[in-house]
Structures are given as structure tokens and as C-alpha cells.
Amino acid sequence: MKTQFSRRSALAKLGGALAGVLTLSVARKAKAVVQKVFVSTTAPNGYDPTKHKWLMCIDDNKCIGCGLCVEACKRENGVPEGPYFRTWIERYIIPKPKPGSDQTRGEALVDSPNGGMHGFPEPPLPKDQIEHAFFVPKLCNLCENPPCVQACPVGATFRAPDGAVLIDPKYCIGCAFCVQACPYGSRFLSPVTKTAEKCTLCYHRITRGLKPACVEICPAEARIFGDLKNLPAADPLQKFYEKNRVQVLKPHLGTEPRVLYAGLDKEVR
Amino acid sequence: MMRPFKLPPQILRLVLLTLAIVGSYLVARAFLTPPSFGQYGWYRGAALGEIAARPPVFAGKKACDECHSDILHKLAADAHKTLSCEACHGVSREHCDNPDILPVKATGSHCIRCHEANPARPAWFKQIVVKDHYSGKCTECHVPHEPTKTP
Question: What are the C-alpha distances in Å from A200 to residues A77, A153, A235, B15?
């Protein structure tokens, strides 16, 4: 049988195709409207996250425990009042062993009154009983394999290509699974927004070419921050890891942190 | 003679129902997935820009250098070279935009904050026991911008 082409069938087919194209464009417009209502987008400010790789280093021999970084972080990021910190300082006091005991040291005392924001009181031990005492600044460890991202049930927390582990506040449902999952305790549930919050590496600053607030304010240069993909030859970061032997916190967890510490003691967790 | 295969009506209903469910899911997904989802990974790419949209609070030492390079030169030549201006003078972004708004006046409490003796402070760091040191003002004997000099 021969296929018959008539004007009627050709017109009908053409009309159908046209209707299809028209509904497609209408659907596209409808989609755009729906997306505008449900998800707003802001124009990126010319920052390409694939062209940077941030690294934070901490020279623990230099930290003087002044708490300026904690205060600056709270101020810069509008962290809620109270026991909520994106960065904090811990004080480790390792007492001398009891005379006659077979130990090299006593049990470490760790404190962080108000995150170390207003400094530290006199240690609870007299000076002659202290073997070692030092401060350790803590923050998000910027893991290569972040457990918090694994734990998030809605995909609100993620690791950006530049190494920052961030939270999408519009997606976060405030279940706090990530708070439990973080082995470094660097997340909290904000009493204001009811979503999880954490160190963003001052994302609003680093994308504008500024240093994070804690690095900017540290008077002892204990915090060193840089971009591994755009590293000038005489960068303090380069000097830091050429000069020091570095380690990370809790390496046995396989989280591969991107916060490197120099001069850490074995007691530090 | 073989009868042509005909889908049993109950199966047909199931197939149609499945298609309707899957179809409505696909339509909803097409409409509700944010456009930037999957731009960098399994998350909303636009979130990066939104997080970065926050205005910075601290102005940074470079901003101070634009007008106060003389003081910064003094600072860089002495022991306080690692200090950021805003560590003692407070957040100065408003002062950058309008020089009439003065930053916080630095006082002796800023000196003590770092230099009060504490066994946990590193030994290389200059520390004093304030009550045994002196009861007057720090600036009577020390110049904050050039700490090794005397006024």
C-alpha cells in the first residue's frame, strides 16, 4: 500500500508540531517562574571556585591565647551570643607526673571558657606542677572526606571545589545530624536561624581577596592562610610548610583535613 | 489460529498508574530542581554566591594602609609588626567609608589581653604579671606602635 500525503494530514502534522513547540516555550517560562518563586539565585561575584584551593595552617608555637580570633569570628559572621563558636581556643595543661609513678606526665586538663573569647583565667594548678601548657586554636578542619557531608540527609552541606565545606541555609532542615557527625565539634545549631552553622573560611571575605577575619586579626601570626592554586613564591604559607613538620587532628579517622598544625602535642584531639 | 496478544486490563491499569506517577515525578523534578543544582556537584551552585554575598565587617590592614601608611611603616619596623590595626582599634569599616566616624580608642586593656602572664603562653612571648609590674598607664613607658621605644 502506498502512503498517501494529503494537504489535510500535512497541515495537521504541522499544527501539532507548532502546538508542541509553543507549549514547550510556555512550559519553559512556567518553569522559570516556578523556580524564581521557590529558589532565588544571586549572581556570582566573578569568583570561580574551581580556580582556588584554600589551605589553613596553624603554628601552635605562636598562639598566645588572646582570644581575638574568636571575638573577630563572632563579629564578622554574626555568630549568635552564647556558647556558639565557629572558631575557639582550647587550653591544654599537662601536669607533671606524681613522684614515683612510672608515667611521663599526668592527665591533661583541657578548658575553653567561653571559647577563649575573653582570655583564660589562672590555671587550676600552681606553675611548678605544670609540665606543659599551651593553647590550640580550633576550627572546621576542611576535610577532604567530610563526615558531615555524608551525614546530611538533604544535601544541604557540601564541599565546594575550592576546599571550603559550606552549608546551604535554604536547604538545611536543622536536623543536626552533621553536628553529631563532625569529629572536631566545629558545627552547631544556630538558635537564631535554626539551621546548622559552621566556619565558612569567611567565604564572603576570601571571595573578595581578603583574609578570613581570624587570620586578619591574629596578632601572633599563628594562623596562616593561602590559596594553593595561586601561591606567590614568598607566601607565608609556602614558608610555613617548608619550615615546619605538620600534622592534622585525628588522622586515624581518614577525614584528610586541610587544616595543618605545627607544634602540636599528642594530647591534642 | 493464534489470537493477537492483548494486555490484560488490570495490568494495563497498573502500567498507566506507574507511568502517571513516574511522569508526575519527572515533571515536578524538572520544575523544582534549582537551575544551578549540579553546577559543581550534588548541591545548589548558587549557594556559594549567596554565602559570599555577606558584606565583610573587618576592613583589613590594606585598607588602613591607604591613609595611615606612616603609622604602618613604624609598626612594620618594630616588634608589633604582626599586629593587625583592628586588633586594638576595633572594626574600622565605617571609619574607612567616613573618616569622621572614629574607631574605638585603644586602651591598656588591649595590652594586657596579650601580655598578661599565663603559663600556657609560649615562653618567647613577652609577658608581665600586671599587679607586680606597674599600676599606671602602659603608654607612660611604652609606645604601642613602636613597643621597643620609650616615649
Answer: 9, 20, 22, 48
Distance separating the N- and C-terminal Cα atoms of chain B: 117
- pLDDT of A182 strictly over 90: yes
A13 — pLDDT class (breaks 50, 70, 90) = confident
The pLDDT of residue A42 is above 60: no
CB-nearest to B52 from A45, A156, A158 is A45
Contact across the interface for A45 and B86, Cβ inside 8 Å? no
Looking at CATH, the fold of the domain delimited by A49-144+198-262 is given as Alpha-Beta Plaits (3.30.70)
Per CATH, A49-144+198-262 and A147-197 having the same topology is answered yes
CB of A37 less than 8 A from some CB of B: no
| Closest-CA distance of chain B to residue A135, Å | 6
Shortest Cα distance from A77 to chain B (angstroms)?
8
Q: How far is A23 from chain B (nearest CA, A)?
A: 14
C-alpha cell of residue B122: 609560649
* Beta bridge mates, A93: A109, A133
Q: What cell numbers appear for A2 in the block?
A: 502506498
Q: Give the integer Cα–Cα distance in Å for B42 and A157.
A: 10
Please tell me which residue, B26 or A27, carries the higher pLDDT value: B26
Question: Are A93 and A123 spatial neighbours (Cβ–Cβ below 8 Å)?
Answer: yes
CATH class held by domain A147-197: alpha beta
Choose the closest CB to A217 out of B50, B84, B116: B84
Domain ranges of chain A: 49-144+198-262, 147-197
* Residue A242 identity (one-letter amino acid): E
Q: What is the pLDDT of residues A137-173, one digit of tens each?
A: 999 999 999 999 999 999 999 999 999 999 999 999 9
For Cα atoms A33, A38, A39, give the angle at the middle one, nearest 5 degrees.
95
Nearest to A253 by CA among A106, A101, A113, A145: A145
Whether residue B87 contacts residue B103, with contact meaning beta carbons closer than 8 Å, is answered with: no
Q: Quick one: pLDDT band at residue B20, thresholds 50, 70, 90?
A: very high
DSSP class of A209: T
Chain B residues whose C-beta sits inside 8 Å of any chain A C-beta: 30-32, 34-36, 40-44, 46-58, 60-61, 80, 82-84, 86-87, 91, 113-114, 116, 118-122, 125
Q: Which has the closest alpha carbon to A264: A102, A86, A94? A: A94
